[in-house]
Amino acid sequence: MSTTTPTDLKRANDSEASVRPPAELARLTRDEVLLLSPVDRLNWFNRVQCKHSELNRVSKDLLELMSPTNSDRIVAVVGMTGIGKTTLAQHLARSLYSRFWPDALPSDAPVLYVNAPANGERSFSWRTLYQKILLASNEPDVEGKSAPTPEASFRRSDTVAATRESLNRMLRNRRVRVLIMDEAVHLLRHDSSDVVMDTLKSLADEGETKLLLLGPYDTAPMVHAYGQVVRRSSVLHFRRYKRESEPDRREFLRVLEVLMGQWPSESVPNLSAIGDSVMRGSIGSVGLLKNALMSIAQQQLQSRSELYKVEMLQKAFKPRRLLESIEQEAVRGEAMLSGATYGDGFFSKDELRATA
Description:
Layout: H1 6-10, H2 22-26, H3 30-33, H4 38-47, H5 53-65, E1 74-78, H6 85-100, E2 111-115, H7 126-136, H8 142-146, H9 156-173, E3 178-182, H10 193-206, E4 210-215, H11 219-224, H12 227-230, E5 233-237, H13 246-260, H14 275-282, H15 286-302, H16 310-316, H17 320-337, H18 349-355
Parallel strand pairs: 1-4, 1-5, 2-3, 3-4
Helix pairs in contact: 4-15, 5-6, 7-9, 14-15, 15-16
């Protein structure tokens, strides 16, 4: 069995454009990665993730809601921009796939992941979405499935109907258990949120498929306002860490320490010395923090000396005015969701204590 030696790893430095496969990078330690090219080191750091309390909470709640024994058919995960919803969903997809696959048939597609399309049209294109889902399932001849039959007219409604019927058959035949739809806010390009939710409800009911919608705070009212869906749906709030909360502050600074411990260069910036400011610059979002750290790492690894300079920090974080705009949007979304998300519950704290 062959092994990877430090000499083998060092050879990657011979090519600035060296790109190792993600699976190979994932197996390497930081000490091994420091022997690679700047490109490979940056790719490795991009894949570095740190589990944290809010991520663990939302992941646990999602696994509960995605269970076949749970009656909810539509679940929305909402949060501020850059909070990490897509990363969360990708991890969830792998976890669910592992859960469902042992009982799956060879032809099954237990979990599918798509991005809701934003194609520049004035209203949302259901036909494009249906085609993307079919493509995600590796269905053959997707374009052919969307074409009207010879007996049908060439009106657009016939084309959409034909594609939808193909999708319905696929959901049933491939036994799709969970359909994850990222960027769900694009669905709101349709004139009526009721029509959107009615279509999604019928899609979930058709193949006994659960729908997981990911999006910003604007996604939540689409689910909450539709009476036919509320009783069989839930909204999960992926929250940011608040600076005024000492437990939140400690957890965020812990995440910063973990990520800095995996820095892809010998020269490591001492960002922990200004941890509170870094938290303000990230608005308490681990996702925004990781984006800023990636920017610093990229600037540093592209410099000739690979030495950290304070100018890199200034470029990595958004200007104060833009951060204020993002934070104000987050505050409005948090107020809108207060008492209306999964786990908030109906009973008072005194009533809960009485049952213990």
